[in-house]
Write a structure and sequence with these properties.
This protein has helices at residues 11-22, 50-54, 107-120, 144-157, 171-177, 191-197, 214-226, 253-261, 270-274, 280-289, 316-332; strands at 2-5, 27-32, 37-42, 59-63, 83-85, 88-90, 96-100, 124-126, 161-165, 180-183, 204-207, 232-236, 266-268, 294-298. It has two domains: 2-63, Alpha-Beta Plaits, CATH 3.30.70.1140; 83-332, TIM Barrel. The strands form three sheets. It has an eight-stranded parallel β-sheet with strand order 13-12-11-10-9-8-7-14. A four-stranded antiparallel β-sheet has the order 2-3-1-4. Strands 5-6 form a two-stranded antiparallel ribbon. 45% of the residues are buried. By secondary structure, the chain is α/β, with parallel strands linked by helices.
């Protein structure tokens, strides 16, 4: 339920109405705009008599919200959220570009790639230390050693790092070592993990699940926000469909839907979406054109010998060329890079 108050309502009257509503078992989230104040009610609103609320002289209108997500809902938070990370913003006018290898392999490799993507204009370094693989026999990542190597690459370049967490038991290690904690597609509905991550003050990059609806995706974001962590970045990385030519099917319409439904920033991962390196540049441009707030792109110095997902990684020189082309697309839609 949303309660829209009349302009220039006195704060004491807002506080009194808030106390009255919260005494009925709901939580009231106020949103102060330049002209209007909106009260978003979270919880069981079935006991709230909307007609009595609307009879209050400071209330302009009462609206029901059908969506089960409240804190991620744009109706409660009309302004776009920008998540701040080490002096940068994701969700602002400047597009955020996260780039790096699928997995950390050696200190030389991750440092080399970090320097190359920074030179091309990337603002963040990605690298997998823990790798969720379909086969138990596939490379599982360097794990804690990988986190140490990422930290060294950050020391060399100054790039904030993004890496995927697999288990709640690693939250302390990730909180110390990583600037943005990624929750992968397979863990999007790992609610125990989300609840634990909701208790920390660290940005979370939440990837869409393999076959998750947009509402399910936003409800996972709600788990993080309901616990107190509002630093959530959404990532569309393709969904599973009947098509087998590409690794997944990139759903660019989800960007438009998220922009309509939520205030959270949303970026696109064209590498995991397609699994094919030669598709990455075109889909990166398309993502920027439809309004994505950024990209996460796999870049590897030697894809042919990569330990993980070399087939979807572009080389540093290709990334540099892509960044030049993206600046033109960004300018055309009123963004910068």
């Amino acid at each position: 339920m949303i309660i829209i108050l009349k302009p220039e309502t006195d704060q004491r009257e807002i506080d009194h109405l808030t106390e009255t509503l919260e005494s009925q078992g709901v939580t009231v989230n106020p949103v102060y705009g330049t002209e209007l104040v909106i009260l978003g009610l979270v919880g069981d609103t079935s006991k709230i008599d909307a007609s009595r609320v609307e009879a209050n002289r400071i209330v302009e209108r009462v609206m029901y919200v059908a969506e089960p997500f409240k804190k991620a809902n744009k109706m409660f938070h009309p302004e776009q959220t920008a998540v701040r990370v080490q002096g940068q913003e994701i969700g602002a006018q400047k597009l955020a570009v996260i780039a790096g290898p699928c997995s950390v392999e050696t200190e030389e490799q991750i440092t080399l790639v970090a320097r190359e993507v920074k030179k091309a204009g990337a603002g963040f370094l990605r690298g997998g230390a823990f790798k969720p693989r379909t086969s138990p026999y596939a490379f599982q990542g360097l794990q804690y050693e990988g986190l140490k190597l990422l930290a060294r690459a950050r020391e060399h370049t100054g790039l904030p790092i993004v890496s995927e967490i697999m288990s709640p038991r690693d939250i302390d290690a990730f909180s110390e070592a990583v600037d943005i904690i990624q929750v992968g597609a397979r863990n999007m509905q790992n609610f125990d993990l989300l609840k634990e991550l909701s208790q920390i003050n660290k940005p979370i990059l939440l990837k869409r699940g393999l076959a998750a609806t947009i509402e399910e995706w936003l409800m996972s974001a709600e788990y993080l926000m309901a616990g107190g962590n509002t630093n959530v970045i959404l990532c569309e990385r393709g969904i599973r469909t009947f098509e087998t030519y590409t690794r997944n099917t990139l759903d660019l319409s989800a960007i438009l839907a998220i922009k309509k439904m939520s205030h959270l920033p949303v970026i696109v991962d064209p590498s995991h979406a397609t699994g094919k390196w030669w598709m990455v540049p075109a889909l990166s441009k398309a993502a920027v054109a439809v309004g994505a707030d950024g990209l996460i792109i796999e870049v590897h110095n030697d894809p042919d010998h990569a330990l993980c997902d070399g087939q979807q990684s572009i080389k540093p020189d290709g990334f540099q060329m892509l960044m030049s082309e993206l600046r033109v697309i960004a300018a055309a839609v009123g963004r910068t890079l």
